[in-house]
Amino acid sequence: MPKAKANRGGLKMISCPRCGKRFFSETNVLQHMNQPTGTCRFASWHEECSRSFSQARCPPSDNSVPCSSINRPPHFPSADSNAYQDWDLNPPSPEVHETEDFTMDAPEEVIPLVPGKFVEVYEGSSEVFPGGKSFMDTFHEDQYSGERRSNLYFPFASQQEWQFASWLLRSRLSLTAIDSLLALDIGIPLSFRTGKQLRARAEVLPSGPAWLCEEMEPESPTKHPVRLFYRQPLECLQSLLSHPLLAPHISFVPRKVWTSAARVCRIYDEWLSGDRAWEIQDALPRGATVLGVVLSSDKTNISVMTGNRVAHPVLISLANIDASIRSKTSLHGYLLLALLPIPKFVHKTTRVRGLLQDRLIHQALNRVLTPLKTAATVGIMMSDPAGNLRYCYTPLASWIADTPEECLIAATSPKASPITTATSKNFGDPFRHPPRTSSITLSAIQRACAEQDPFDYKNFIKVIRALRLNGVVEPVWKGWPLSEPSDFITPEPLHHFHRFSWDHDTRWCILATGAAEFDYRFSLLQTLVGYRAFEDGVSKLKQVTGRDHRAVQRYIVGVIAGSVPRRFLTAIRSLMDFRYLAQAPMFTDDSLTELASALQDFYDNKDAITAAGARKDSWEIPKLELLQSIVPSIRLSGAVMQWSADPTEHAHVQEIKVPARAGNNRDYYNQIARHLDRAEKCLRFDIATYMESKRGEEDLRVDEIEGNETEQDKEHEPDEEEFPTDHLAATRSPINYFTIADALVRGCIPNAPRPYRTFSTATTAFHLSTKPSLRLSVDEAAAVFNLPDLRAAISEYLHRLESGMPHRVSGVRSQQDHQLPFDRLQIWCKVRVQQMRYHSRQTPDTPQTLRAFHPSTVNPHGLYDAAIVNADPDSDWPQRGLEGHSVVQLRMIFRPLHSELLAAYVQRFDVVAQQGNTNNRNAGTGMYLVRRAVRSNGSRIGDVLPITLIRSPAHLIPHFGKEAHSRLTSQTSYELSSDFWLNKYWSKEFYYALSSSSR
């Protein structure tokens, strides 16, 4: 018989310290808090968002901007503010006289934004006027708002029916499948019985920007009619501005951020912190608001395996949205604006067909984007997230595209740079050529049209070939004020960094090292948990993705070290340094100088690549020339990572591929538009009904207080259905072990097992499983983990604890008597370690797993990861890099039974001094060379340390030398090697930490 469920009626309930939900045990609370996409995280985020939304609807009391609000829209509190008041999701609009307006004049002095940063905002920008509409205002003005006073979920009968209908509408089920499902007795009373009835009800839901379809007339006959599917771009921008999930993350005021009040060193991060936003604001009337338009276009495959179906989507977003939020695909920061036609022209000449396709693309883009050009010229009134009006201008901030698409947009040929005046013969020059301004390109187009009729295609192609044009006569950016192609065509990391590295760096290294040796070295690497391993090498990889490109970059410098000439290695390392530095989320003038220096190092040594036979004399690489524009682009438009195609490529999956594959493989564009229209209606209705229901709960709570009820309200216990589903969640942030550790220390979970399995220091948080992996005696553990001096090391550790001596991995044994007050150990084989991000000390990074697995049949030599530990009490990780720290290998994690001590046995590596280099970095690899610390008898030096001295995971690459030993395997390479490279490239956060000490 099955076991009966225990009666928990009399057990004490324990509440979550974040959201208040109650559980039966401390373990359940910790598991609940550990869920990265659970309702607990959304609850805390929604409260913050709602408070911001409430305060934003109130008029300002004066014209100054508080320091906490400088990076937010005017009158928005910052995300870190503790001055939030009780919130209301839909407060009444402020009473405003007709002659009164709200202006936001920034103070003239430089104000400290956060410690170490000072900000100067643009005075007199972004005036605010009453009379706009918020997201909820639009919802309440819907034609069916009257019915929703009695039934919030109209045209559906109840919340339960709406949840089921929403799931059906979002699913990939066909109408036939939906009909079959609805024919079943599912136990839910429904007001619809067929898929058509369901979709008919969905049509009356409040909608977003409507889809339009327009027939186009191409210059030359095509095999099929040409149709353009698009939405009004201003409606899309208004939809983004009104989106309540994005509201706390939208800024309007250009700013200059400095490292000090002396205004000597600038800081560049968001688009509004760059010079271009400031210059655009200078060109606009006083009080105008700059809305930086972000566009993205690229062709993407629809069909799977066969069919050759391709779509050409155009996405739109706002540079005013925080880059970290805009890059989250789940937040819908990019909207599908248009589906460009891909016709098949009947012209016999291939070059002519290409010219006609390029012209048709610009013709379609001109049709779609004309309203944005008009708004950029004369301005337009738009509602901000708080429901106020602003007079907005819409310059083009960025056009995100790969290199061929950039040439298409810039109206240049592939043999010319879309950003500068460089041609293919100049792509290898070690300097930046003058920018390719719109006047230069338009003058070339006029010259070509004067020499030859643009409709005499064959002869016109001969003319434009010499002028490095693609044949487009009316480029889309023509007549778009404040929008120069050399400015808005921004660097794109996915293709300019990662694809470039795979296409060129990797191939150069394979040719210089030899494919067999190169693959063999990669196969010997031991990677950390969650990172790609290359058991079969790299050279024969097929269908390589951007994730693979990044994975190869993590190890390639250490892998080729010793097998290639030193200057060849320096050239590859310099390019890698350039890419890693350029991916930082923020820059200073000093870091930009370092970035430019790294690129110059490559040019100083690139002839070694040619000398090694890895590259011919020609350097006609378009992406190489584009690297020269990265530093100027950062000064103009902020960090380049915000212009990565990663979010837009992911958006193609949800916006294009999923809707297309949910249809019947006919008339793709039409079915994509219909699918997205239904999905957006569901999303907007989900948000609106949730916010309205929460407002109703707050009103009831206020009524109870005003009624002077004598009985206190019972503690609210949130249920799962009270929170939106995952598609409404603000972000999928990593687990925050710092928050959990703080909750444990404050006693929020009083009966949690001791010692706490989640704990933290000022820089690092740790998490161990509740149950240990092993329970052994000290001598048994020494035998299992092959640590003959374990007992002596523990004895020395306890002596240092009692005497207050600092902990060092010295191998010194001052104690003769190794008697211990315990004999049994609890042992863990792995620990989760989490740090704060280098450039954002309040944001936790993704946790990493450190392993210490004893020898087994699977791993005959065990599996031990490396780490950075604190060797100096005054050291500061990551600010001072490796200074005051040691590199160790984690050999065992344990706790003496009936003790609260959590410790680790580690073995030390020593940094090998480099001649002629004061920072001890190898000149070729730019990395530290470390060697196992051993005694005179050859035994390894190890010691026991508190686990809290661990500062960061680390990664080592064996120093293979000229040729890797043929008997090494992936299981033996780390145990049989003595010299290693401390691989700073295995993660960007680790790179920034190790690079900080050299700046």
How do you describe this structure in short?
The protein is α+β, with helices and mostly antiparallel strands and 999 residues long.
Radius of gyration: 31 Å
Please report which band the strand proportion falls in: under 5%, 5-15%, 15-25%, 25-35%, 35-45% or over 45%: 5-15%
- The CA-CA distance between the termini, in Å, is 69 Å
**Can you count the helices?**
28
- Biggest beta sheet attributes: 10 strands, antiparallel
Assembly type of the chains comes to single chain
Q: Specify the overall morphology.
A: globular
- Helix fraction, binned, reads 25-40%
* Tally of DSSP β-strands: 32
State mean pLDDT (0 to 100 scale). 85
Low-confidence regions: 1-12, 41-109, 708-731
Structural class by sheet pairing and helices: alpha+beta
Helices and strands in order:
Elements: E1 14-15, E2 22-23, H1 26-33, H2 39-56, E3 111-112, E4 118-121, H3 135-140, H4 159-170, H5 175-182, H6 195-202, E5 211-216, E6 226-231, H7 233-242, E7 255-258, E8 266-268, H8 275-283, E9 289-290, E10 293-297, E11 300-301, E12 310-318, H9 323-326, E13 335-340, H10 350-378, E14 380-383, E15 389-393, E16 396-400, H11 403-410, H12 438-451, H13 457-466, H14 485-488, H15 493-513, H16 515-523, H17 546-560, H18 566-582, E17 587-588, H19 589-605, H20 607-611, H21 622-626, H22 630-637, H23 646-661, H24 668-706, H25 737-745, E18 758-760, E19 764-767, E20 774-777, H26 778-784, H27 790-803, E21 824-828, E22 830-835, E23 848-853, E24 863-864, E25 866-870, E26 885-896, E27 903-911, E28 928-932, E29 942-946, E30 950-954, E31 956-958, E32 979-982, H28 988-996
Parallel strand pairs: 9-15, 10-16
Antiparallel strand pairs: 1-2, 3-4, 4-7, 5-6, 6-13, 7-8, 8-17, 10-12, 11-12, 12-13, 14-15, 18-19, 19-22, 20-21, 21-26, 22-23, 23-24, 25-26, 25-30, 26-27, 27-28, 27-29, 28-32, 31-32
